[in-house]
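Question (not urgent): is this output format expected?
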Amino acid sequence: MRIFPAVVLVGPRQVGKTTLARAIAAEDREHPGVYLDLEAPADLEKLADPGAYLDEHRGCLVVIDEIHRIATLFQVLRGVIDERIRAGEGVGQFLLLGSASVDLLRQTEETLAGRVGILELGPFDARELGGGQIDRLWVRGGFPRSFLATSDRESAIWRANFISTYLERDIPMLGPRIPAETLRRFWTMLAHSQGSLWNAAPLARGLALDGKTVARYLDLLVDLLLVRRLQPLHVNTPKRLVKSPKTYVRDSGLVHTLLRLDDREAVLGHPVAGPSWEGFVIETVLRAVPERTEASFYRTATGVELDLVLDMPNNRRWAIEIRRGLATTDRALHTAFDDAKPDRAIIVHGREDRFPKGAGVEAMGLSALLSELAALAG
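Got this back:
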């Protein structure tokens, strides 16, 4: 993203943005960067006159954490960036950090449009940890302290505390005033229906709310990068296609904790195992695809379905079916591949072997798919 004067790095809390930012700020020994944490009173005081302070540190990277705490700072940055652009100064002047705050993203889009790039920093994924860690990553999720815990019990306790803290402190701090217990029940319902088509009616009945309120709750969790809303593919076909998106709790470890599944055996013995694996693969794949890739799923009203369709740059389309168990095929799956008309038809299964399935369909493990996507991404 080094084509913008500023970059915004967002993600759920507890994914290590602060540690990464400090390392980036210290990387250049000749012109070391400056790190400001706006939750610290001393750093906040430094920006009493933000224009003067930023001018003093011209020529080095300025990292500002929790920037949404000073809404007026965006206007100052806009003026500073525009002045530096006119002076012919380069890119990479500011690194702005914050949890996935709705206010942060709104301020960025409204005030710094065209001057800033947005990068999403997610938890660990399989590319960072190696193929031998995939099962552990699936069960525990990618939050560093959950994945690195010394035992499954310690990992589960950390995730349970994370969920409680996020609901009771972080979300209210970011703006919305929603009862924590209501949002927990909604989040848990989404975990139970992992990978299902969005249907607000039963969720609204279960929470004794109206459909618009439940849709607003979904929007909130999507904006906070906690839930993914995967849209259906629209193709030119006489078949009747579904129009509702699918929803996934994005971190598989949080899915398991919301459902009180603390270890691999508990996960494998629960009906959510397949949908949880599906969501885990989708999240992992979408972090590896080339930029500007559009993701969707394909499903007809009769149930012919593909879990993931990737429309990549240069009009390349890959269609992917995700299976936790054996890479089986049937007539419906071949029909789905034919309808989507992909350049590559792939079944991702839970093993590491790779083999053809006939009719142009390949079966491979997640690690092999990630390697191929990495080659495309360059």
